[in-house]
Amino acid sequence: MSPQMIDRLWHAFLDTLTMVGASTFIALAAGIPLAVFLVMSAQGGLIQAPRANRLIGGLINGFRATPFVVLMVALLPFTRLVTGTTIGVWAAVVPLSISATPFFARIAEVSLREVDHGLIEAAQAVGCRRWHIIRHVLLPEALPGLVGGFTITIVSMIGASAMAGVIGAGGLGDVAIRYGYQRFDTTVMLVVIAILIVIVCAVQFAGDFAVRRLRAR
Amino acid sequence: MNTAFFDAAFEVPHRTPERVRNDAVSTEAPPSKGASGSVRFEAVRKTYLSSAGPVDALKGISVDIPAGTIFGIIGRSGAGKSSLLRTVNRLERPTDGRVLVDDEDVAALDEDDLVRLRRRVGMIFQHFNLLSAKTVFANIALPLVVAKVPREDIRQRVADVLKLVGLEGKENTYPSRLSGGQKQRVGIARALVSRPQILLCDEATSALDPETTLSILKLLKDINRRLGLTIVLITHEMSVIREICDEVLILEGGEVAESGDVWQVFGNPRHEATRALLAPLSRGLPADLAELIRPAPLDGQPCRAIVELSFTGTGDNELDLARISTALGIGARLVQSDLDRIQGHLSGRILMNVPYRNDLAAVISNPLLANHTRIVGYVAADD
Ligand SMILES: Nc1ncnc2c1ncn2[C@@H]1O[C@H](COP(=O)(O)OP(=O)(O)O)[C@@H](O)[C@H]1O
Ligand SMILES: [Mg+2]
Asked: Which stretch is the leader sequence (chain B) (predicted)?
């Protein structure tokens, strides 16, 4: 491989890191409150808001049902509004975040819903308010599941970010398609795949390790 | 457990106003006038709307629980015990009727008052319900943390209750590393750390082995005696009631089957449900006797009678050995004894094997022998 290609791969690696890092961070920040709201407002939950629950749930389903490539194109006007451009890494972060947030919110919802109802009652019985229950019961008890779900979200965003090349965002997937596929450079293709495998394995390993540590308590 | 500790740290809080004023939780929640931990149910009904249609879990329960007693609620699974108990701290709202805690209508409380009430009413659970992500210390501290008690006070009070339940040194352990009995002790410590006046126990010993059950019951009794705490305790085992309760309520199908002092209910169960619950505790006829026994005196050969003397604890009936042996005559043997002393009242029965004679029925009808006597059956004389 030429030094330019190595340089190109390095930059693509950084771009992928940026896209995945930024979008999963946003997914984390927005997905947890959404998941908490979904759980708290569900039938028999601590907040009585069935309509808002259905609305948010429906929106999440809508975004989850739309394929990422379609979402990316459909969101172009919105992306321009937010970032001022429709190409480049940050332009890709917008649809990636909007795809990752509902994805993670649903996974987080499942973990939160699995928290034993008896624990919530015990907290209520000692005088905890709703906020205390979220802070001291729901989130800490669901933490292993949340960490595991976040790991899955990161890995799936690494995959989705490969498609961001369509809007000129670069990244490893883009390099693989442009050089490996379109110019028949098998070496580049294999190297990119190897790098992606290493990244995914590292993320999964770190996530599994954290979950194991949390569950060992 | 040491008494000095109780006296120092756990002097009944509501009887020492100065202590109450220095106490952050109690400052936020000054006990209402005359607050002492009594509970009154007035025609409480509860109907659940399940997918299979409405379920009438409670069908009009009226009961008074005096402050400071250990009050047992017993009944078969599904009788409505948990539903009733959970109305006290409003984990469940009655569909109809009222629940009064120290004359305060629980249903009428707004959120702030409800939180205050819940700090006066501790609760422990069958499956302990400890937070797995928090250490023993953090679990017990939670009620104080959310009540914004200063950190130093929290440390002291958690240490105090840990000592009370006999778990010193376990502060930094996670609940998953504890045995069932230890977990329930943590549950008790968490319930007591806000210095409640009432402790609700929902099948608190049902997940524990018999030995651990006894030690937890002993702890509860200690707490009741030393802190003057009212304890409302659910169980499906009569042995638990006998062990520590003062009064008992028997629930059957969402209704009160009977209620009263434990010795009365044990000595003289009136309702079929009560007898069914008591059955596992009482011994039947010994197997060898059951095989030999006949319903009528044996013709033409010497025979003996099996006589049962029952004591219900009423009147001043004591088991007077001399009187019994005089009445039944030489050769009366004690076959089996199933006696207990509950709250100072003799309860249970003995079986005697006595030489049969024609006037036996008249002799044993003497009310001075026992509360009830009867001839169970007859066996051939073996001598
Ligand atoms: N949340 C609920 N929804 C529907 N039915 C319930 C609910 N809780 C209890 N029940 C029903 O109410 C009845 C009494 O239940 P419970 O109070 O738990 O009885 P116990 O504690 O004596 O076993 C049972 O028939 C039970 O199925
Ligand atoms: Mg129950």
From this structure: none
Q: Which of B41, B55, B82 to mutate to test the pocket of ligand 1 (most atoms within 8 A of CB)?
A: B55
- Which CATH number do you get for residue B46? 3.40.50.300
Positive or negative: CA dihedral B222, B225, B231, B234: positive
- Residues from chain B contacting residue A123 (CB–CB below 8 Å): 142
Ligand at shortest distance from the CA of B253? 1
- Tell me what ipTM this predicted complex has: 0.90
Q: Which domain holds residue B271?
A: 3-279
Angle at B343 between CA B276 and CA B364, to 5 degrees: 70
Report the residue of chain B nearest A215, measured CA to CA. Answer: B133
Chain B residue numbers with beta carbons less than 8 Å from the beta carbon of A128 are 142-143, 146
B363, containing H or E segment: helix B360-364
Residues B82 and B153 in one domain: yes
The full set of domain ranges for chain A reads: 3-216
* Together in a domain, B189 and B292: no
Threshold 0.95, pTM exceeds:
no
Residue B144 touches chain A, beta carbons under 8 Å: no
Same domain, B273 and B292: no
Residues B268 and B344 in one domain: no
- By the 8 A CB rule, do A71 and A63 touch? yes
Residue nearest to atom 14 of ligand 1 (CA): B80
Q: Nearest by CB to A122, which of B129, B133, B174? A: B129
In the block, tokens 């998953």 appear at B176
Name the residue of chain A whose CA is nearest to B88's CA.
A125
Among B231, B254, B279, the domain boundary falls at B279
Q: Distance between CA B64 and CA B70 in Å, rounded? A: 12
Q: What is the CATH code of the structural domain delimited by A3-216?
A: 1.10.3720.10
